[in-house]
Write a structure and sequence with these properties.
421 residues, mainly beta, Porin, five-stranded mixed beta sheet, 17 strands, 14% helix
Length: 421
């Protein structure tokens, strides 16, 4: 090969390489958009583990629609069905994947099986190749290694990650001696990014109950309105800070106006990106609260302005053996430490051995800070119908369950006939 031919070969190779790189960069900028339709399918876990696609909330902008459904199997497990439907440039591509769980699978095992199938199902749409169960999927993206949060939103999002929700519901029921009706409305706006989250919520409710028995007619009305603002900023992979504001009016709680403004810091012993598997957080909050009571309280007050603070520890762990979470909060008024409360709770769902599993939830509150209790008390009817908050220095709730499944775990047959009968 002479010198001229060598130079020409180098030039052609350079042009081809630059063109190929440009094509790759152009293709990588059009990240696959996936819409998930399911009732409960560990969506948060899927979003944090699959970082090489963009999950969208609007079905009309997606490239792939994923529908996840499940039915109970004869052995007490579930058969999951994943239906992938390509759209836009991928129209015509359709796939269905199925897998079964048995009765002794924990949530962690189930969600890992689901994660693997979702990854495999999306490969054909992301790279037009399918290598089956032996495929190992990796990504060069660095969202999970960020020091400030988990995941990332595309830069081209016209809504800039804002999500809005509006909801209303109402119900009416009645019989000869009793009628009741209620109305609830709520609106929210949220922007959740890897660096921060801003959440705004407002709600209102109206509840009325009427009784006509033995010539006695009574009517009870409860109204409530509330608004909340929460801003949390990610300072590092372990540390966050936030500002919180709440406003409320409540007949039940004797609030004509309740306003609270506080700031807090939170530290997670483990990196936040491991929150789906393990998390231990320590948080401290301090702020001021303004109370305008509807009726005079047991402390003979109609107005209160009180500084307060709180410290809490929460933990959560999810492994193949099951799930456990717990928390404790200690809080008090800064101008009167005798007015305080302590709350302790824990929740677990654990597989002990094969088909033997235990689950439970317990919460216990000691409270000495109920400054909103009415001086004139509550009538017998209001107590029985829970129309007013009552003075109590504690409340307790416990639940415990034990279950054992035995017999065949290999019955994967799904028979939905007369399921609703």
């Amino acid at each position: 090969m002479n010198f001229r031919s060598l130079v020409l070969a180098i030039v052609l190779w350079s042009v081809f390489t630059i063109s190929a790189k440009a094509q790759i960069q152009s293709d990588s900028s059009a990240t696959l958009k996936v819409y998930i339709n399911c009732g409960w399918c560990y969506q948060d876990y899927l979003r944090t583990q699959i970082t090489w696609v963009n999950f969208v909330q609007d079905q009309f902008v997606s490239d792939v629609d994923l529908t996840v459904t499940s039915l109970a199997t004869g052995s007490g497990g579930s058969e999951y069905q994943l239906q992938f439907v390509g759209k836009k440039l991928l129209v015509g591509l359709r796939d269905t994947l199925k897998f079964t769980t048995n009765a002794i699978n924990t949530d962690n095992e189930t969600r890992d099986m689901l994660l693997r199938r979702v990854k495999l199902g999306l490969v054909r749409y992301a790279a037009c190749s399918n290598t089956g169960d032996c495929l190992k999927i990796e990504s060069d993206l660095v969202q999970d290694s960020l020091d400030v949060g988990i995941g990332s939103n595309p830069d081209t999002d016209p809504w800039n990650a804002w999500v809005f929700r509006v909801g209303v519901n109402a119900n009416v029921e009645g019989q000869k001696v009793y009628q009741s009706g209620s109305f609830n409305g709520n609106v929210s706006a949220a922007q959740i990014k890897e660096t921060h989250k801003l959440i705004l919520r407002a709600s209102a409710s109206y509840n009325e109950q009427r009784y006509d028995y033995s010539g006695i007619q009574q009517s009870f009305i409860l109204r409530a309105q509330s608004a909340n603002v929460r801003y949390v900023h990610s300072l590092s992979n372990h540390l966050s800070a936030g500002v919180f504001s709440a406003t409320e009016r409540s007949d039940f709680s004797n609030y004509d106006l309740y306003q609270d403004l506080s700031a807090a810091v939170e530290y997670d012993i483990y990196p936040y990106k491991e929150a789906q598997t393990r998390m231990v957080t320590l948080a401290y909050r301090a702020g001021f609260t303004y109370f305008d009571f509807q009726k005079e309280t047991i402390y003979r007050k109609t107005l209160e302005r009180i500084p307060s603070h709180a410290f809490n520890i929460t933990s959560q762990i999810t492994q193949d053996w099951g799930q456990f979470s717990s928390g404790i909060e200690v809080a008090s008024f800064l101008n009167d430490f005798d007015k305080n409360h302590m709350s302790v709770w824990f929740n677990f769902d654990v597989r002990i051995f094969k088909g033997l599993s235990a689950s439970g939830y317990s919460s216990f509150n000691i409270q000495h800070d109920q400054i909103n209790i009415r001086l004139d008390g509550a009538s017998q009817e209001e107590v029985l119908l829970q129309q007013q908050q009552l003075l109590s220095n504690y409340n307790l709730y416990c639940y415990f369950g034990l279950s054992y499944r035995f017999g065949s775990i290999y019955n994967n047959v799904v028979n939905p006939r007369f399921n609703n009968y």
